[in-house]
Amino acid sequence: MQIGFIGLGSMGSAMALNLVKAGHEVRAWNRSRIVQDRVPGITLVPVAADAFQADAVFTMLSDDPAIREVILDAGLLAKARPGLTHVITSTISVALARELEVLHEKVALGYVSAPVLGRPNVAASGQLNILAAGKADAVAAIEPLLASIGKRVWKLGEDPARANAAKIACNMMIAMAIEAMAEGVVLTESVGLDRADFFELILGTLFSGRAYESYSAQITDRSFEPGFKAKLALKDMRLAVEAGNQIGRTLPMLEAVREGLANAVSAGLGEKDWSIMADMTVRNIATATDSGER
């Protein structure tokens, strides 16, 4: 198939390269200039509209404003190849997902929300979990492509917003797990229990699972090189707050982790992995967040 791809960051480039490995012709565009050697086998196109002249196009941009700027404000949907299916793998707001569904229907394009679970190394190995929602025919049209970039596709129904709400909730719960481990360390280190021994205990009894295994190791090693940057995690917590507000609900644990991430970003640690907020909790570091981080 001819595949367009917009957004060749660490996640997007890994996904696009796996599509090439699966035998697809990939034409890609990125907002900033990238070196061709970094994406062998991918044809780099000069404008984003070129990526929409394909059988399907994937979008992996950082946030709602980026999607509005690159795709909606530029009128790319109206310029797209007829019959194209648009797959947005970014973590975006529930509100934008609903808006995009309507806009795609107006121009008779397929639309699938397909945010992913996994870090860049997971994307590179083609082992992402993909949360997919959209009209059945649109999902069916791109399901073979999803199989090239992920180990499992979780079909969540025909309402695209379901996939986005699920992804936001997943990231919210991971942030809560990170904070829970940090607060556990605060208590146990106060009596001299080494954090590695504490984590061995919880992983072997109450809290086995990938999130606990991965982030307990980072907290133990005090290693916070980015897999998922704190500034992007803060964006996702804001999306979760917005989603709660839309249904008239305040989520107290969400507010706590949102504030922790806001503190990390305010402290100049936005480029670090989001687990850096655990280090700040353990070391009892707080930063005022009244400067617009809310």
From TrEMBL:
Superkingdom of origin: Bacteria
Name the InterPro entries for this protein: 3-OH-isobutyrate_DH-rel_CS (IPR002204), 6-PGluconate_DH-like_C_sf (IPR008927), 6PGD_dom2 (IPR013328), 6PGDH_NADP-bd (IPR006115), HIBADH-like_NADP-bd (IPR029154), HIBADH-related (IPR015815), HIBADH-related_NP60_sf (IPR051265), NAD(P)-bd_dom_sf (IPR036291)
Location of the 6-phosphogluconate dehydrogenase NADP-binding domain: 2-154
Gene Ontology molecular function terms on file: NAD binding; NADP binding; oxidoreductase activity
Instruction: Tell me the GO BP annotations in alphabetical order.
Output: organic acid catabolic process
Coiled coil, from the record? none
Gene3D superfamilies, from UniProt? N-(1-d-carboxylethyl)-l-norvaline Dehydrogenase, domain 2, NAD(P)-binding Rossmann-like Domain
Keyword line: NAD, Oxidoreductase
Transmembrane region positions? none
Domain 3-hydroxyisobutyrate dehydrogenase-like NAD-binding spans what residues? 163-278
Q: Name one Pfam family in it.
A: NAD_binding_2
According to its UniProt record, which residues of this chain constitute the active site?
K167
> Know the name of this protein?
6-phosphogluconate dehydrogenase NAD-binding
| Organism this protein belongs to | Methylobacterium radiotolerans (strain ATCC 27329 / DSM 1819 / JCM 2831 / NBRC 15690 / NCIMB 10815 / 0-1)
